[in-house]
Design a protein that fits this description.
Chain lengths: 311, 311
Amino acid sequence: MVQKNLIGPLAKYFDKCVDDEFYGESSWEKAESKFIKDTTNLVLSKSGITNKDIDFCFAGDLLNQCISSTFGLREINIPFFGIFGACSTFVEALILGSMSIDGNFANNVLCAVSSHFCSAEKQFRFPLELGNQRPPTSQWTVTGSGACILSKEGTGPYITHITPGKIVDMGIKDANNMGSAMAPGAIDTLIAHLADTSRSPDYYDAIITGDLGYIGRDIVLEIANSKGYNLKNNYNDCGILIFDKNKQDTHSGGSGCACSATVFSGYLYKELKNKRLKKLLLITTGALTNSTTSQQGESIPGIAHAVSIEM
Amino acid sequence: MVQKNLIGPLAKYFDKCVDDEFYGESSWEKAESKFIKDTTNLVLSKSGITNKDIDFCFAGDLLNQCISSTFGLREINIPFFGIFGACSTFVEALILGSMSIDGNFANNVLCAVSSHFCSAEKQFRFPLELGNQRPPTSQWTVTGSGACILSKEGTGPYITHITPGKIVDMGIKDANNMGSAMAPGAIDTLIAHLADTSRSPDYYDAIITGDLGYIGRDIVLEIANSKGYNLKNNYNDCGILIFDKNKQDTHSGGSGCACSATVFSGYLYKELKNKRLKKLLLITTGALTNSTTSQQGESIPGIAHAVSIEM
């Protein structure tokens, strides 16, 4: 479910595209909560699994105290784990959900995240009413929600490996250049994954990062190359995939928890299901910052979590 | 590790009591980060386990985007799961850590949380400089940090059962009465735990909730009684245990992630280790709210997570 993306390249893959940033609500925060609520109801409905048969819910978002997910899902009546990995939250949920299923604690797990351009800008940067000019390095928070259900039984695609990331802080301080802040974390997790699995990048049909955008993507390509990994043939980023650079004025690309979650749940999942994609490494990336730390002169720590998904 | 608690009833149990709310830093947020950093270094040092042998870290706090834990632990170099359950975060970490160990994904897991009265008041209520009068229902956020390491091997105490909670919202809207907002969640999780394990409350030497304080504790006792559970002999709350009602002007008691984490890690853990306590049900409680939702007229959803710990 993505808002205002009718001209975006992935619009046809999404269950629903919405043209009202308030989504019929009185605030952006309430709209975002409604996005995650409707998206989880939709995935439950499409799966044929009732919420009584879901053992755990893992959910999070970018808003202070994760209010989009807690308010959006407060009536869901499923044991609830709130998680926060900034824009990496979607794969954090997949990792924790996978472990709880593989460890025999759950049969079905719901993973859901959301983000909203307006609620995020208001909270992390400036009031939208100011009409601030955005620098070319900035990214556009995806307004929407993505959700999935992990099950012990099924016909795939399957999560085969998990690689939770470490926090990596390379000293980037520009809150309008998140791609640069998050790229080192993505590289760290990618290399940890390849080393742990003794794989080379070409094992995968696609290696997709969360929301590094154009600038972060280029940094990943360059650092990977300097470390002997060639990613040129199969690497892309959800922040690049989700928007049309020429038609949509989104500068360095998309970001937000919903960026990787909608690109995966809407597009990549269907590519896996249709076997156009058989081996995917999904690495979501997060900037662990807020407006207070920026004002206090802190740098922006990044993190990236990876799952290997095969059909 | 708890700040300014030298007159508190549990002071002698804590590794360190600190008298400077800035802890030598230039802001309360940085002080809180230093609390969680020093506490995790201390628990690593006391355990004799190096951070290379810790597989995962689960951590969280009350600050926007969980910056206390992410900045405090950004150099720890351990795969990191950020979690958010408000004041229930400590047991959320214990639950996720236990599952990852029991599911054979980890041998050692670090769980750490923090809170700080000043950073929390500033963020959730009013600037401290205003000197607002606090109503009798209000609680005092514990300034400090608690951490523990869960291990596959060891001599106990052992986590034997986990009961992650559902979100429960009974419509309480008073941000100065968190005990009332969280008590229904605590009851829901307690009853789920007792039903799942076919236990009665007297199975436990102690049932301890996270930070309901005096008002929340009384609500739990009353609702439990109305549902046929007698908790009068073995039930107490970390928010009551941590402060001296007569000597410390903390109204309805303590709160914050560090409330249950310091009471457990400092006091209850030692009681278990010394076998003065053999069967403990620890239920941490969280209010899933922020200042925006309060301003937008929303009620306060609560959540509670439980672990059964035996020696």
